[in-house]
Amino acid sequence: MEKALALAAEAAAAGEVPVGAVVVRDGEVVGEGRNRIIERGTATDHAEMLAFAEAKSIKPMVETMPMSQVNEALSVANLEYHGSVRVRHLVEVLFNDVTPEVIAARVKRGLNGLKVAPYYGCQLVRPDYGFDDPENPRSLDLLVESLGAEAVPFPLKNRCCGGSLA
Questions:
Q1: How is residue 162 annotated by DSSP?
Q2: Tens of pLDDT along 67-109?
Q3: Are the CB atoms for 74 and 65 separated by under 8 Å?
């Protein structure tokens, strides 16, 4: 983790979105990278992509299961999955269902004096899920402010970090 944080600091110093990544196999770092999108002028030089490229033959860690296998596992608890779950981001739930006003009313120890630069990336509000403006998102800013902190302007707040390409 320290290496990934150091790589993120290097990326930030180079004017990139501060993301660093390491690939570890059997306790040994076999790949590392930091964002180099601006530096190289390419859309694919994300930290994760560079780390995986250096590590070369990485086997997928996650396998998908057919719904029949999922339901077989769930049957032990008398549960069944029908594929109809609406997946929502936690920020959307906090912003729309709980609301910043309710959060503000329930805060016991506010974050007064703390300045926060919310980072949305490209996946929180894109594609347009309808709960925030993809070009100028404000939901995280308002949630941060509901906790008593100051949301400071961050011009890269909706810039892609490349995580979806990993």
A1: S
A2: 788 888 888 888 888 877 777 888 999 999 999 999 999 999 9
A3: no
| Residue 38 in tokens | 């601006």
**Which letter does DSSP use for residue 96 in this model?**
I
Q: What is the DSSP string of the chain?
A: -HHHHHHHHHHHHTTS---EEEEEETTEEEEEEE--HHHHT-SS--HHHHHHHHH--PPPS-----HHHHHHHHGGGT----S------HHHIIIIII-HHHHHHH-SS--TT-EE----TTTSS-S--SSS-SSS--HHHHHHHHTT-EE---TTTT---SGGG-
Distance CA 142, CA 104 (A): 10
For residue 134, cis peptide bond before it (omega within 30 degrees of 0):
no
Q: How many CA atoms lie within 13 A of 136 on its CB side?
A: 1
Q: Which residues does 13 contact at the CB level (< 8 Å), separation at least 6?
A: none
CA dist 91 to 4, 98, 140, Å?
Answer: 25, 10, 7
d(CA 59, CA 61): 6
